[in-house]
Amino acid sequence: MKIITAILVTATISLLSCTEKTKDTTPNVQTETNNIQKDTPQKPLLAQLDTPSVHTTNSIFYVNASSGLTLRSGTNLRSKKILTLPYGAQISHISSPSHTTMTVAGVTGNMIEVDYQGARGFVFDGYLTRLAPPQDDESVENYAKRISTKEQKVQVTKIKSPKGNAYGMTTGILLPAKNWTEAYQITKKLFELPQNLQLDLTAKNTSEIITNKSKREKTFKDEIAVNRSKAGEIESIIYSYQLRDYSRTVTMVKNKKGFSIKELELSK
């Protein structure tokens, strides 16, 4: 009996010893997690401040809605609101659910699943662009520099009127946009076109002219023309503004390298 008791005591001491060694060699998981969080830099809010990073998703988009874009829990516009994505925010595309096409304020698009700084949900992609959108009061030259890459430099041209700067200027830029909707949204902000001129550019319609309903009394012309071919394809978009001694036109034309945008200002 004494022998059995001694064996049990010895076994208990050995077990306690092993347990103590295990405690001493096991890392503190919570401490490691905190250290990683402290060392990980926070992602900037706006797209123009982001630095290149590795993404496991298919595409990167930018919010081009001036008032922001709602991130929702589902593909229905009545789905619960998670948060508001700010103008210029960079988001990662996760998936594209089927049967979600809709038109919102003259813009046609789909509800897609995205990730924004760890928050996942669904947004209306009609107000998303692949190019970072212009900032408030950003010049055409500065915008071109910001979106230029080593592979594709965005060029800007400026031609003064033969009579001098006071009599007019032609400004041109070649936007590497993917489609008419994206090109128009960027042009609208960059060249300060009226915000209430909403166009559904995905519809296969005939040519049309839309007049600004907020046109001032002494303004001769304030309208935008969408010119389409017989097949319904857009050939050009032209915004026209005219006063007695001043006129401005912004013309958009698609070519092999993107969209050629030209603004012509004339003063008498």
Task: Please give a structural write-up.
By secondary structure, the chain is α+β, with helices and mostly antiparallel strands. It contains 4 helices and 16 strands. The strands form 4 sheets. The chain has a 7-stranded antiparallel β-sheet with strand order 10-11-16-15-14-13-12, with helices on one face. The chain has a 5-stranded antiparallel β-sheet with strand order 8-7-4-1-9. A two-stranded antiparallel sheet has the order 2-3. The longest helix is centred in the N-terminal third of the chain and has 24 residues, at 2-25. The protein is globular, with a radius of gyration of 29 Å. The termini are far apart. Residues 1-57 have low confidence and may be disordered.
